[in-house]
Amino acid sequence: MDSKRNLFLAHRLISGDSKAYDFLMGFYYQSLCAYAQSLCHDHALSEDIVQNVFVKMWDKRKKINPDLSIKSYLYKSVYNEFIDQYRKNKPVIYLEKKYFEAIDLVVDIEPEELENLIKLMNIEIEKLPSKCKEIFLMNKKEGLTHTEISEYLNISIKTVEGHITRAFKILTEKLGTKMEAVLFLLFNFNKQKG
Predict the structure, then answer these.
(1) Which of 37, 46, 50, 58 is spaced 20 to 30 A from 145 at the CA atom?
(2) Taking the CB of residue 62, how many other CB atoms lie within 10 A of it?
(3) pTM for the complete prediction?
(4) What is the overall mean pLDDT for the chain?
């Protein structure tokens, strides 16, 4: 991608243009997943790493330096996210660590507020466009990979990725920084109960 296009997209992204975000995701998603997989050797984890990077990029878009290469920014972010995941995974297994982090994030929240956040999460998931909701729940609730969903629904992996990222973006806008913790608690509580 040339520097003029890079600068244009960076400015569009900083201003909150979701089309620029969608374009960047479509353009870089596969290669970033391949890069993440070369680091962690785990397909599901590599998808999580890249999704986290895109969610964080959208959240922190106003802090992006438009003069820097977006490609370099994304690859560096994937590497940093992998390092974070690696450090988190060393003391306890991945799922337990994520669970403790989620608990830490919500521990300061009053029980009523947490209950309201979980209710709000369910309401917002229900409001997602139907195909977006179906794919998001297959991934997060049922634990299916992007490849499994694409084969099951007979659609491209890129379409699956687009729907999941769109759902993440909508939910983050509605629920803010606590979204991932609530999402994790909600679906893991459901799995434990089920």
Answers:
(1) 58
(2) 9
(3) 0.47
(4) 81
